[in-house]
Records
---
Amino acid sequence: MALSLLARNSPLASTTEQRQILARTDACRPFDERMGLVGLAPLHATGITVFQINVGKLCNQTCRHCHVDAGPDRSEIMTRETAELCIKALAQTDITTVDITGGAPELNPQFRWLVEQARALGRHVMDRCNLSVLLLPSQADLAEFLARHRVEVIASLPYYRSSQTDAQRGDGVFEKSMQALQLLNKLGYGVEGSGLTLNLVHNPVGAFLPPKQEAIEAQFRRELARHHGVVFNHLYTITNMPISRFLEFLIESGNYEGYMERLANAFNPAAAAGVMCRYTISIGWEGTLYDCDFNQMLDLPLSHGAPRHIRDFNPALLHARRIVTGNHCYGCTAGAGSSCGGSVT
Ligand code: SF4
């Protein structure tokens, strides 16, 4: 299995290095300047409807595009103490949705506790699932747990054919993903009328933008049903962010400047006005607060006077906070934007 950037001692394991590369690109005008042209600079939040908790970088896969640089060799995970601070903060609010991500979030010993606590507070819970985790012997009862707690599953599946999916996520991952989807379907996930939501996420397997959502969703629906008997609710499309391991791929393949130019040329003011940081608060495994999971992976915490740690959570100071932006944000404003509101593992 491949190793994370950190385990390979890659210079890109340094977020400072990544930020410098992104800041000095000649392929596009600075993001804030572009936002200024459409009256969106400085960018501000418009409230918080999504409480996204990233419980850490541990994962059972080492996908090529991963913006978290997650993998089996990463040991950073959220402790119970920090998880308790998250639930305490959530209880102060009427935020409707808790979005749990990683790594493979289910591998964190606090995952199930977080789900139970958030559900007890009456919140909708989403699990950003890599699918193969459901087949691990240690997670034999995970699918039933998710169904019992009515957790929405958002599952990454780059493509409906094995070659493209395995190229991005590792040998044999497509086959495991199909087994996991069949298991979820058996429990009612993705089946009309069950109330158990199963959404898939498609991201391009290369240095290009995702296709139109409706067309690719119809293809996935037809091919997965025909060849694997798999059903799902919706397919979201996301643009690969030019950070972490996807940034490494862009640089090594000579596509970095071209990709940044492609993103900037596809700048869409409507997508820019609706970026997820405007309605999300993102919490890191150590409790640090961010505008989104991408800023989290670039070590860009909240700034401009907003609280920086979950222990200082204050909804009044966060609802209209100024957002920290950079050239990576072109990944959110290209084309139709990323339609699943955030990262997927
Ligand atoms: S990368 Fe984060 S801060 Fe930048 S536009 Fe996207 S969601 Fe907002």
Note: The first strand starts at residue 50 and ends at 54.
---
Amino acid sequence: MSADTVRRSIVLRRRPSGAPDRSDFDIIEDAVPSPGAHEVITRTIWLSIDPYMRGRLREQQTYAKAIEIGEVMTGETVGEVVASADPGFAVGDLAVGARGWQSHVLSKAAQLTKVVRPDPAKGAPPISTYLGVLGMPGATAYTGVTDILKPKAGETVVISAASGAVGSVAGQLARRAGARVVGVAGGPDKCLYVQDTLMFDDCVDHRSMDLRAELAASCPNGIDCYFENVGGAVQEAVFDLLNPFARVAMCGMVSQYNQDPFPPGPNLGFVVGKRVLIQGFIVSDKPGRIAEWRKLAAPWVADGSLEYREDTVEGLENAPDALGGILGGRNFGKLLVRVGPDPH
Ligand SMILES: NC(=O)c1ccc[n+]([C@@H]2O[C@H](COP(=O)([O-])OP(=O)(O)OC[C@H]3O[C@@H](n4cnc5c(N)ncnc54)[C@H](OP(=O)(O)O)[C@@H]3O)[C@@H](O)[C@H]2O)c1
């Protein structure tokens, strides 16, 4: 079989204990199927690697169904249509969908969203951005900031995992609202990027010996809004500094995703006295949010006023280690796996 006729899929071999790696998965090969009525075959170009994927590997169901042993791993992709039995898709079209860790994907047409082929001559962002700044992570930041934090000019907003796919956008949105934005990130390079490129007002390295004191020094007026991406020690330090009527958008707690059971929580007594609002959210709760965000943010990406950074891993076979890496902070920007070449 030639490369064009072989489908490679990554399936779950066993549930990981701690950080996932390639030994938890199998790569299987079979023939690329033919599409039935209203079905489409895409070849995957980009696969998104996201922290939520660790939750799918647990036995217990979270807000979404767990992956079964032997099942293809879930994941958002951008692909090019190579065969179609649906009038809505033609060979050569580009499509986004949650189509999994596969080189070629058989989809019902309704499972895919057709996206425009970018024209670089017109300054259009590359197709990888459909999975990052203009995709689910960007829409997540938009949801948490606009629906929950609602930052006002002059307020102090803290963003954890500040250099990452979600945090980088959340902080830039809070700055657009006129807030003073302080990032928390792992290491000097990420902190430099957060301050010099994303233009946050300050950034604290959560690996530093005295996170609490450094965060307090960066937030002399306390914290009015917190965009929570990591939990753990960062959360403890932030909660100590929250002002009365602070808002906390609970987006994720990546520091505990590899732990089983999850660590005990903080004492929330302060929430009463300070009248703090703490609200969790899942971006998929609001259908249409990604499309709404893409329309709003595409001009900002095109004119350079919304910065983003991508971190690329080559080859589908390296997706498991990439997932282990994002959970340990080894990514720097939106993490993507290059599965196949760009469209012609
Ligand atoms: N609610 C939703 O609908 C939704 C949707 C998408 C994503 N999320 C959540 O949003 C968060 C960010 O996701 P993302 O895709 O943008 O990933 P990301 O920020 O690009 O990558 C994850 C980052 O988490 C940080 N991290 C990992 N372990 C940590 C630890 N022990 N302590 C502190 N920081 C740690 C690392 O950054 P540093 O090196 O800077 O620490 C790492 O680079 C995750 O919690 C994810 O689950 C939620």
Note: The longest helix spans residues 136-149.
